[in-house]
Amino acid sequence: MTNATEHDAADPLAPYRDRFVPADVVAYLDGNSLGRPLRVTRDNLVRFVDEVWGERLIRAWGEGWMQTPTDLGDTLGRVTLGAAPGQTVVGDSTTVMLYKLVRAALDARPGRTEIVLDTDNFPTDRYVLEGIAAERGATLRWITADPAAGVTADQVAAVVGPGTAVVVLSHVAYRSGYLADVPGITEVVHDAGALVVWDVCHSVGVVPLQFDAWNVDLAVGCTYKYLNGGPGAPAFAYVATALHGVARQPIQGWMGAADPFAMGPGYQPAAGVRQFVSGTPPVVGMLPMRDMLDLIEEAGLGAVRAKSIALTEFVLAFTDEHLVGKGVRVATPRDAERRGGHVTLDHPSFRELVPQLWKRGVIPDFRMPDGMRIGLSPLSTSFAEVERGLRIVAEALS
């Protein structure tokens, strides 16, 4: 295995690490849960308080704030989603956005009453769909996925049919890091006459996406992982142009109305993706994300993905050399084409071990039943940092 120093010396993205606020830890291995803040974000937040909010006050709504959900959505779409303008909007939480999209998709397929999902999807996705099924009298059709792999096009083809309204899947499995075949699965769903909602929380900002080229219908994602938007940063929704005027969101707030300040007696949705806004846009929460999108665009998402693959390959090589002999099992696909931005390692001791690692300044996370996720945010993570953390894992297992 090439050592970490050689990897870092050859890394074209190494200078970007200095753009982040330094963390007083030995190794931060949880960038797929919460990205580190950028130095420029600290300065921009102060400037926003002093020069925009502080000086312009309510006048700033008419000077740009009202357009931030769609303006920032267009930037996010261009930089990370492969989406033309007018299809992406920022606001709400992932949970709320997912509810809006699934409800809209279900209602856009009248006469169809089945929702397809998988047993190993993130709990929020499963819980939201259970609630919608109860609310709308729909039937859930479950795909039993291998936790160490993920849902395949063949598995989807086996369950969709004339009763299927919508399929909801994750692009990258939160537990194993399995990278699903978005265009292949989307084609299968379309052949059945249904719509698909993709959860891209664990891929946006680290895996290049091509929503328009892949004929994606709808997608939702968070922005505090690889987009470094900060804790509680607003989520986003993608709604393909073909569904504008067909899919109508269920949470009819005044900010998604055709004329919010008419204060009229009835709701008339805004044209296009704007109708998926409900309440007041979270302007402050959008600021850090804009800074990270600028950085990703500067570095190039292709280069980010290349380093992500190199980092995960480094973890796999270290694991084979130093951890497998201690009973560790790799629960992530070894094929880079089927792997997202994190590696999951299984060991029966990890549940007790991870809190001890945190005390030693090594910060991975734990997922039941016995998985330790090594989350690698390429622009802020060095190979040396990863190696330091994994060596302490090896020591702890000994």
Molecular structure report:
This is Kynureninase. There is one protein chain. By secondary structure, the protein is of the alpha/beta class. The protein folds into 2 domains: 4-38 and 301-397, Aspartate Aminotransferase, domain 1; 64-296, Aspartate Aminotransferase, domain 2, CATH 3.40.640.10. Helix content is 37%, strand content 13%. It has 11 helices and 13 strands. It has helices spanning 4-9, 39-56, 68-81, 94-107, 123-136, 153-159, 182-191, 283-299, 301-323, 350-359, 383-397; strands spanning 27-28, 88-90, 114-118, 139-143, 164-170, 195-199, 218-221, 236-239, 329-330, 342-346, 362-363, 365-367, 371-375. It has a 7-stranded mixed β-sheet with strand order 2-8-7-6-5-3-4, sandwiched between helices. The chain has a 4-stranded antiparallel β-sheet with strand order 9-10-13-12, with helices on one face. The chain is globular and about 70 Å long. The mean pLDDT is 97.
Features:
4-stranded antiparallel sheet, 398 residues, 2 domains, Aspartate Aminotransferase, domain 1, single chain, 37% helix, Aspartate Aminotransferase, domain 2, 7-stranded mixed sheet, alpha/beta, globular
